[in-house]
Amino acid sequence: MGSSSRYRAYYAKLMDARIEEFVMREELIMLTAAELDLDNTPPVDFSEPRRVYA
Questions:
Q1: Is 9 helix (H, G, I), strand (E, B) or coil?
Q2: How far apart are CA 14 and CA 9, in angstroms?
Q3: Helix, strand counts (H, E) of the chain
Q4: CA atoms within 13 Å, Cβ hemisphere of 37
Q5: pLDDT tens digits for 26-42?
Q6: What is the DSSP string of 15-30?
């Protein structure tokens, strides 16, 4: 079973729009409680700012 090139272009454009909408949104993305795992890794305040890569 082959694929149709016109459908491929349509869905590629649709997916590009969805990705752009996700990337350009202004809401914050927060970690869930399970991802934070505050019971095992409590938050730490540092006296000086630290460089991080995200």
A1: helix
A2: 9
A3: 2, 0
A4: 3
A5: 877 788 889 999 899 98
A6: HHHHHHHHHH--S--P
